[in-house]
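re: the backbone from monday

yeah here it is again, tokenized this time
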């Protein structure tokens, strides 16, 4: 895992957007896997701004949602479909046919999940998967205990996650207990992973994911196995990393080292 520590949330989002822009520039197309939640909001703002400035064209970008609450319609204000439309898709020129989502109300759950995996494969796989991290170390809705080789499927949410989401819903009975999520095995097949984390409340999960043992108990720790996983953090999220000075030094000197080698 490459750990990139930025001074604040804004700079972390800037860095993630820069990586995505650089990848897009190589081929003028890109397959993205996209997370929802509080964390990637700043990144999506940066992508919208790149588009508005004419620096990034999304007409050949294909996007896959990472997950969706089970039981919610696409139009529900808390659905991830609505989130992606509101915070990214309707501000850029992505083609509707290039937007892929997991349905919160699939006719047949297992077939829907299999079809999603087939769709990802049919476009050649995901180039960059954007992730946030839960305080319990979850990625997507792969909660602690998820199989490290899991595929897209229905997943029950932990009490902690249900409680964290509850304030967003008007009625208690509305709060989702299940989700559809890309599996950990699905996520690991992406060519690059960008995990963003911000704030002190994520510091413990980040330290356990990056420096703790590889364990299904901390699903994000599986990113230690990925050859192109970048963890982009602000100072608070990085505060409990034992090797943070080393990561900072390596990142700051990376360009210099590479120049010397070529
Ligand atoms: C969202 C998702 C979740 C979040 C995680 C962090 O699509 O899959 O894993 O990334 O719960 O959420 P925030 O960013 O709201 O702290």
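seq for it, each position gets an aa:
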């Amino acid at each position: 895992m490459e750990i990139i520590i930025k001074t604040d949330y804004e700079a972390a989002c800037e860095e993630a957007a820069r990586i995505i822009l650089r990848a897009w520039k190589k081929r003028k197309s890109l397959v993205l896997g996209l997370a929802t939640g509080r964390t990637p909001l700043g990144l999506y703002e940066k992508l919208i701004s790149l588009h508005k400035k004419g620096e990034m064209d999304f007409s050949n970008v294909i996007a896959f949602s990472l997950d969706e609450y089970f039981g919610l319609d696409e139009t529900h204000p808390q659905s991830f479909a609505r989130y992606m439309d509101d915070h990214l898709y309707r501000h850029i020129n992505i083609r509707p046919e290039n937007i892929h989502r997991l349905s919160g109300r699939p006719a047949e759950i297992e077939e829907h999940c299999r079809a999603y995996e087939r769709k990802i494969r049919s476009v050649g796989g995901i180039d960059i998967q954007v992730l946030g991290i839960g305080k319990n170390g979850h990625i997507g809705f792969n909660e602690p205990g998820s199989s490290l080789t899991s595929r897209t499927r229905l997943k029950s949410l932990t009490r902690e996650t249900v409680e964290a989401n509850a304030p967003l819903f008007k009625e208690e009975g509305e709060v989702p207990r299940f989700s559809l999520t890309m599996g950990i095995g699905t996520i690991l097949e992406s060519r690059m992973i960008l995990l963003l984390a911000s704030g002190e409340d994520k510091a413990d999960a980040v330290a356990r994911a990056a420096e703790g043992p590889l364990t299904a108990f901390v699903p994000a720790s599986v990113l230690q196995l990925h050859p192109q996983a970048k963890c982009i953090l602000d100072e608070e999220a990085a505060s409990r990393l034992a090797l943070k000075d080393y990561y900072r030094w390596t990142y700051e000197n990376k360009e210099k080292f590479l120049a010397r080698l070529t």
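The beta strands are 2-6, 30-34, 61-65, 67-69, 99-100, 128-131, 153-156, 178-181, 192-197, 229-234. The chain has a mean pLDDT of 96.
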